[in-house]
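Researcher: Structure prediction, please.
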Amino acid sequence: MSEIPSQPPILQAKDLKHSFGEGEARSTVLQEISLELKAGETCSIIGPSGCGKSTLLYLLGLLDKPDSGEIKINQRLVSEASEMERTAIRNELLGFVFQFHFLIRELTALENVSLPLRKAGDSKKDATLRAEKLLVDLDLVDKRHRLANKLSGGEQQRVAIARALATSPAIVLADEPTGNLDARNSNKVFDLLVQSAREEGSSIILVTHNPDLAERADRCLPMLDGRFEE
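Model: Predicted structure follows.
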């Protein structure tokens, strides 16, 4: 019996290099970074501040272009795509959780989470049901009608995580998603990310300073001085 071919990676990065500044002030932040991620896989990146973790997420999320190297999503070369194409890919395939939550202050928690679903074409009813489920999972359903600017910092961060998962993106890029959370809520957030990977096939890249959470991922990549350590 012939073997079933393995599924190709959903995300591939090869020999990424990136620098900031000009002339003598130019500083290399990433040095020949390569990474592959399969559908449904969780991958953590851990390392000291300034080692290039967040810069790598910005490149993988098509928010910036590398100086050299290539990025492929679903076997498509996207690192040199036009800004319009990159925006379309982000909207269709990527979910982001930043260190700063970037919620819309004038909207409620429920409205913030359901907004990307409405933009994607879901009905108000379907978007509300999906948003409420995520808020239940994160112990926030009782705060669903509270304005974002009336939530605590930790609550706002959990709303941002629910918003990132709302559309079941193919890839979730999370930059310190538990930085403002206590141990209980950090574990709840991580469990929800893993659940999304297992049930919906989302691939997760998690940047964290928390070694306990990092080790719970399918793969943990230590980073130092712009490179993955062996």
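Model: Strands lie at 11-20, 27-37, 42-46, 68-73, 76-77, 94-97, 171-175, 203-208, 219-224, 227-228.
Researcher: Thanks, that helps.
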